[in-house]
Write a structure and sequence with these properties.
Number of domains: 2
CATH class of the largest domain: Alpha Beta
Number of helices: 9
Strand order of the largest sheet: 6-5-4-7
Strand content: 15-25%
Structural class: alpha+beta
């Protein structure tokens, strides 16, 4: 699944998926041109207009003339509205589910960050989901292995994507390109969202080379 466009999991061949994603995320009216600019994965102006016409035909989107243009809004009273709104929140729901799972673990990681294409909203259908976990140095290795397997399995079931865990004990974390990327793009899942930045700053302040 492409988390930046979850409707593509059920309709990957046309623009309805992207138009629905735009309209379900805001209780506002948009022109076709505005919707086109907000498409998460791009498309043509005419394709956007055609998609809107098809969604209006099914009553999922309502159209209204204002001045010399037509504006569109998601029909939140439609029988399918709740299901479509739930799909639109797939990324938020995924992060929430990950947080809930990890919060119940006996051994807590110092920080957990979603990074890579999933964090940057650049996923393809076959993209991996990358998750960084920083562990206390004294964390039990058997517990880490068990929880890591659980996380990998469940996150893959939730999304259909392969899940890749990047795991380090705190003392193993030193300045590198991958940690720079995580600090730049990462989305906090659990633990301290600032742990990595603070840890690396302390590492450098202690006279260690970058």
């Amino acid at each position: 699944m492409r988390l930046q466009n979850p409707f593509s999991a059920i309709n990957s061949s046309n623009l309805e998926a992207q138009v629905l994603y735009v309209l379900t995320r805001a209780e506002a009216r948009f022109s076709a041109q505005e919707i086109h600019r907000l498409l998460p994965e791009g498309g043509s102006n005419q394709g956007t207009r055609n998609a809107l016409q098809r969604l209006v035909q099914h009553g999922i989107v309502l159209s209204e003339p204002i001045g010399n243009q037509t504006v569109y809004i998601f029909n939140r009273q439609h029988l399918l509205a709740d299901a479509l709104l739930n799909i639109a929140q797939a990324k938020r729901n995924f992060l929430s589910a990950l947080h809930g799972m990890i919060s119940a673990w006996q051994v807590q990681p110092l920080t957990v960050q979603l990074f890579g294409s999933a964090a940057r909203n650049e996923m393809a259908a076959d993209s991996d989901i990358d998750i960084f976990l920083g562990w206390p140095d004294d964390a039990d290795e058997n517990e880490i292995d068990a929880r890591s397997a659980e996380l990998t399995r469940q996150a893959s079931l939730w999304t259909g994507n392969d899940v890749r865990l990047l795991q380090y004990a705190a003392s193993e974390v030193t300045p590198s390109a991958i940690f720079t990327e995580i600090m730049r793009d990462g989305l906090n899942v659990a633990g301290d969202p600032n742990w990595l930045r603070r840890h690396l700053r302390k590492y450098k302040s202690n006279g260690n080379a970058a």
